[in-house]
Amino acid sequence: MSTTPSTATPEQGTAFGLLIIGDEILSGKRADKHLAKNIELLAARGLHLSYAEYLGDDRQRITAALKRAFDSGDVVFSCGGIGATPDDHTRQCAAQALGRPLELHPQAAELIRERMQDVAREQGIPYEPDRPDNVHRLNMGVFPQGARIIPNPYNKIPGFSVGRVHFVPGFPVMAWPMMEWVLDFEYAERHRAQNWSERSAIVQGAMESRLVPLMERIEAEFPGVKVFSLPSVDHPQYGVHIELGVKGRGPVVADAYASLRAELIALGHPIITELVQ
Fold it and tell me: Which residues are in the MoaB/Mog domain (predicted)?
């Protein structure tokens, strides 16, 4: 099975994005788990998520979102809607966004047939390739022309990639190992390349508004570093507090945090604990 990676070489500044598709998420019938997991998978490789978007099963919105993804040059994962039931639109929308026809991918067809044979064998019944439901299942391998497959270790039914946009099922048990495979097979050279890190301090007894000048000063002194403030009023461990920190790429983050920490102490704000990511 060929799984040739994209010929495009991602640049260091390329962002990572996530699309989560399905009415069941927006209606609350199912709780999304992809956002937190995608953040985790990226962080384990020294990468970070730049944006995420939730979409219902609306062809116009999905097509528009995918058009933006293809045009962006970003690495984007799309979760959900690649099945073959009437409420699955992602494959068709991807083709429309690309202006390409849909076609049965030969390797996908082979894998789907293998899966059907496996199921027939498990059930102790003969494999009937021409049975209408089995013929219909091949639609799960109909991708935009020129797509590459993403192996599915759970049940062999593949996802697909076009450029830097990667399509996986909505089921976490399938989607997560498939996303890991993409990150490790297509973007191994990007691991740790972003050198992204975050450092922060838990501060009690401080007012966020009075810390704004300090935050602005740190960002001005250390270009490329983002300062963040996360106030909390009901934390079970720290109670009322502010998590104040910096994030960015490279050693400048440590320098910026050292300056931030020193000024907090000078202002008389006790640091309860410090966090590093």
Answer: 17-190
Q: Is the pLDDT of residue 52 over 70?
A: yes
| Fold match, 16-190 / 196-276 | no
Report which residue type is found at 84. A
Domain boundaries, the chain: 16-190, 196-276
What's the pLDDT tens digit per position in 56-82?
A: 999 999 999 999 999 999 999 999 999
CATH homologous superfamily for the domain 16-190: MoaB/Mog-like domain (3.40.980.10)
Can you say whether the dihedral through the CA atoms of 227, 232, 235, 238 is positive or negative? Answer: positive
What does CATH list as the number for 196-276? 3.30.70.2860
Q: How far is C-alpha 267 from the geometric centre of its chain's CA atoms? A: 39
Model pTM?
A: 0.81
Beta strands in the chain (DSSP E): 16-21, 51-55, 75-79, 102-104, 142-144, 148-150, 159-162, 165-168, 196-203, 226-235, 239-249, 271-276
**b/e per residue 167-178 (b: at least 16 CB within 10 A):** bbbbeeebbbbb
CB 159 within 8 A of CB 148: no
What Cα–Cα distance (Å) separates residue 158 from each residue in 109, 152, 161?
Answer: 9, 5, 10
